[in-house]
Write a structure and sequence with these properties.
This protein is mainly α. The chain is 67% helix and 0% strand. The longest helix is centred in the N-terminal third of the chain and has 19 residues. The two termini are 32 Å apart.
């Protein structure tokens, strides 16, 4: 945790001006990495959110820190968000069944970042297919029956979908987002006993843009 915090604070002070390859260097350690390295990777991303990006971080600090948060996010959008999302996808694919604790860690990070990254990185057939696959055969048309991740993993998948639904957007963009998710069609395929919770998710009031 201390190492993750130190990395995040260095990013806050030096990225991208003095350390433009901060996130490329971070992702380089994932090649052939085992669970301890993956866990540290996720802890670092969590610390970056906690120390720089999250509303709780900017809300308790001065105006210059809010600006710094915005500058770091802008640089990340250009520099590394696409590569980060690709890493999340591959980690999630490999761990959903085989390593649930890693899958939960990945999903927690995605839920924190999805509110400010380009939504197209996750709202696409490939990424949503992976998320819906985790919810079971009823979540996607024609999905084959097979092993289903643990309830904890599925719960965090729903949290990610919840954050996608609540992403700040103008009303037309919000409607397009909800249509892209296909939540109502997905709800219709679930057993009746599970439908009320899904309906509550799909019909949550949209969040107004800032």
């Amino acid at each position: 945790n201390k190492f993750a915090q130190c990395f995040a604070l260095t990013v806050k002070n030096d990225y991208p001006e003095c350390w433009p390859r901060a996130f490329q260097d971070l992702m380089a350690v994932l090649n052939g990495a085992g669970p301890p390295v993956i866990d540290m990777f996720l802890r670092i991303l969590d610390a970056v959110d906690e120390e720089i990006i999250s509303d709780s971080a900017t809300g308790r600090r001065e105006a210059r820190d809010v600006k710094r948060s915005r500058d770091v996010k802008d640089a990340m959008r250009v520099d590394c968000v696409g590569t980060l999302v690709e890493a999340w996808y591959h980690l999630l694919s490999a761990s959903m069944l085989a390593a649930p604790d890693i899958a939960v860690g990945v999903l927690k990070v995605i839920a924190k970042y999805v509110g400010w990254i380009d939504i197209g990185h996750v709202v696409n057939e490939r990424f949503l297919g992976l998320l819906f696959q985790a919810l079971g055969p009823g979540a996607a048309p024609g999905a084959p029956a097979g092993p289903v991740p643990t309830e904890k993993v599925r719960t965090h998948v729903v949290e990610v979908i919840h954050e996608i639904v609540h992403k700040k957007a103008a009303p037309p963009a919000k409607l397009q987002l909800l249509h892209s998710l296909g939540l109502l069609a997905m709800i219709a395929r679930f057993p009746t006993s599970t439908a009320p919770a899904a309906v509550a998710l799909a019909t949550s009031p949209p969040t107004a843009p800032m």
